[in-house]
Amino acid sequence: MSIQVNNLSKKYGHQLALDSISFSIPSGEVVGFLGPNGAGKSTTMKILTGYIPASSGDASVCGLDLAEQSLEVRKLVGYLPEHNPLYLDMYISEYLLFAAGIAGVKNTKKALEMAIELTQLGPERNKKIGQLSKGYRQRVGLAQALIHDPKVLILDEPTSGLDPNQVVEIRNVIKNLGSEKTVLLSTHIMQEVEAMCNRVILINKGKIIADNTLEGLKETAPSDSLETIFRNLTSHVGSI
Amino acid sequence: MWEVFKKEIRSFLGSFIAYIVMGVFLAITGLFMWIIKGNNVLDLGVASLQVMFNIAPYILIFLVSAITMRSLSEERRLGTIEILTTRPVSDLSILMGKYLAAVALIVFTLLPTLFYYYTIQQLADPLQGTDAGATWGSYFGLILLAASYASIGLFASSLTDNQIVSLIISMVLCFFWFGVLSLLGDIKALDAIGKSLEWFSLDFHYQSISRGVLDTRDVIYFFGFIATFLGATKMAFESRKW
Fold first, then answer.
1. CB contacts, 8 Å: A103 with chain B
2. Residue of A77, A81, A102 with shortest CB distance to B3
3. Residue A23 belongs to what domain range?
4. Which residue numbers of B have CB closer than 8 Å to A's CBs?
5. A43-73: per-residue pLDDT in tens?
6. Are A66 and A49 in contact (CB under 8 A)?
7. A91 touching B, CB under 8 A?
8. Within a domain: residue A240?
9. Which of A62, A153, B36, B152 pairs with B51 at a CA distance of 20 to 30 A?
């Protein structure tokens, strides 16, 4: 299993953000992590990348325990946080070389070329990040996440705020990556999942309410569109 | 750690902060040493850098705080802290990379003042020369002092995502530990309490090292001070995990 999560809970003060969720993702799968805002998607991702610890439960990535082998796990995981944070005053290649170095890559030049090719940043590579359009910034964020050739990619809303053309481009990039990596990406857009994922994990109010392949999810209500299924599931918790 | 160190140095040099800090430091110390009437070197007629070593701690309060004000608060404001802390580097090595970069920049700022020392050596009475022990002691003390300021500054920047707030907290804390505590020793009413509080001030140990006698107690004090503030920084930095 690439990602294994057992009874994971997270409390922020008195607020329960994650309520004992469990799932596992075999390697090579592209999984859409779906749910309304505030459902606990980002919290799960922050725990899986080691940014914050879980309140209870455990998780492992590629067989390594998250709490005990945190640094080892981080070598295997590429992470694009929500809102894609970047140093706007750095040049693209400068930033990616830094990202490679800090990820422990030995041959940073080679990693830079690989990441630039995968994300098709070539034409803009000599610009400052602050000068880039949103679509290209998103590519820099993706390039940062995959610069150390991680086994697992965790992408928090990788296409939010992009125009339709850029969305399609980023989707293609992720789809290509999915052929050799395990990808967990969050979104609240249904078409997104249809375009990229093999499997959907639906989460609402900190609980998993559906974990199925795309086809399986469609079969639960053959006459409805995915949007309707999503709305039915997230507005009537417990009906399934 | 060195990756973070290199990135910090680059961002100093790219953002002009480094040049402003160096320029301001050299301009102010230069003015007081050679030009402003009253107790400049030429008026006093004493071949020593004492004038510079007396005002440098106050200039450095501002400059060191300006260097460190963005180091953690900017990462928090941009959200890049989430990328940094999810890479295979420990929180401590991120902090040390940033801390050492600030100290390196300060040492680099002090280097050109060696030219003042050369000038004074040339002006000094050839028979008596200059007091080398006191000068090198003072340089050593000044670097330790600035390194202590840097640990305060890093701590301040770990508390907030606002650079200005970070700058002000840092300056107030630096001034408290350098100036306020040492003034307490002069208050007669406080008597022995004031004297023992004075022992905790940065100024007390700075003055002590400046005499040119290297007392291990002073060095231990400075390293302890720096370690304490870096420890507090680490705690604040990891508050997300609470």
1. 87-88
2. A102
3. 3-235
4. 3-4, 6-7, 10-11, 14-15, 78-90, 240-241
5. 999 999 989 999 999 999 998 998 888 899 9
6. no
7. no
8. no
9. B152
Domain assignment present for residue A186? The answer is yes
Can you read off the two tokens belonging to residue A109? 């030049």
A180-189 CB burial, b ≥16 within 10 A, e <16: ebbbbbbbbb
Is A83 a domain residue?
yes
In a domain, A75, yes or no: yes
Q: Are A187 and A32 in contact (CB under 8 A)?
A: yes
Going from the first residue of chain B to its last (242 residues), give the mean pLDDT of each consecutive group of 10, the final group possibly shorter.
91 85 91 84 80 91 93 92 92 94 94 90 81 87 95 96 95 92 78 81 89 87 96 92 76
Q: What pTM was estimated for this model as a whole?
A: 0.90
ipTM for the assembly = 0.86
Q: Is A151 on the interface with B (CB under 8 A)?
A: no
Rounded to an integer, what distance in angstroms lies between the CA atom of residue B49 and that of residue B219?
Answer: 22
C-beta atoms surrounding B154 within 10 Å:
30
What CATH number did the domain enclosing A163 receive?
Answer: 3.40.50.300
Number of structural domains chain A divides into? 1
Judged by a CB distance cut-off of 8 A, whether residue A101 touches chain B is yes
The ranges assigned to domains in chain B are 2-241
